[in-house]
Amino acid sequence: MEYQDIIKDWKQKKFRPLYWLEGEEDFFIDQVSNYAEHHLLDEAERGFNLTVLYGKDTDWSTVINACRRYPMFAERQVVVLKEAQSMKDILKLEAYIDNPLASTVFVVAHKQGKIDGRSKMAKLIKEKGVLLSTKKMYDNQLPAWVDAFVSSLGRAISQKAGILLVDHIGNDLSRMANEIEKLLVNLPPDKKIDENDIEKYVGISKEYNVFELQNALGQKDISKVMRIIGYFAANPKAGPIQMVLPALYNFFSKMSMVFGVKGGEKEIAAAIGVHPFFVKDYVSAARQYGLEGTEKAILLLHTYNLRSIGINDSGVEDGELMKELVYKLMY
């Protein structure tokens, strides 16, 4: 079950007595627990029927006592346990989970970890309630996620604008969602988000960013590469070397995988883990560099990563290091 399915059920007044939210992706867990806290009860009902507890500040007996209360002047009560991973003796909730109160909706937010799927408690959770196990999204899934998230807000975003956001923010979905929501506040209701909006309101240059640097390197467009590196040198926050080097290493590593794939764009996309939209960029770059040139690039990136942290380096400024690196990558 996906997090959207839980919220969809709730909107249709379909409730289970337990929702256990766990795993690596905090955003999905927060979406469900926050919805439970703010939308399952109306304002008049919340005063008597909503309990929000935090794992680090509570104990198992307090949680169970809260869950065993009956609702007052409402069909159900809601108990939300946040930061459950910080609560001692959490396994002692097993007794309640085995026999939950039907009039209580108990939502457990257990971030950055999972309970043992072989344990009795895990089996009880699946039997008595709903288990949502979340994972971090892969890079190639992010553009589609951005598009879907914007659509869920009743808006639209251009493909280029979505790529700029993904390139700048990565897979921090909470930050991504915050930036999108902040952006929409500044735009007319019928305005489609484009790269100009990203540049103006999020502070990401549509011309001078890591994504454009990758493309320019892939095409061996030295003029454009040097313009971007010059911009990064003059504006260190726009392209810090600690962000640029891992991105380029990822780019060339994926490019190296192209040489071992038999098939078309679909097979290449699956093998290197990128959205099919980007495959042509990797294939074109692979032709420019060849296998030997790609392997040389990966070794150079490793060397300059060490230099960026002071190993085998005499204190060259980051901007100069990047200029050296990109020149050697292309020649």
TrEMBL record:
Ranges of residues in domain DNA polymerase III delta subunit-like C-terminal: 207-301
Annotated GO CC locations: DNA polymerase III complex
Pfam families: DNA_pol3_delta (PF06144), DNA_pol3_delta_C (PF21694)
Record field: catalytic activity: DNA(n) + a 2'-deoxyribonucleoside 5'-triphosphate = DNA(n+1) + diphosphate
Gene Ontology BP annotations: DNA-templated DNA replication
Chain ranges of the DNA polymerase III delta N-terminal domain: 19-133
Stored NCBIfam families: holA (TIGR01128)
Record protein name field: DNA polymerase III subunit delta
Organism whose genome encodes this protein: Chitinophaga pinensis
Gene name tied to this protein: holA
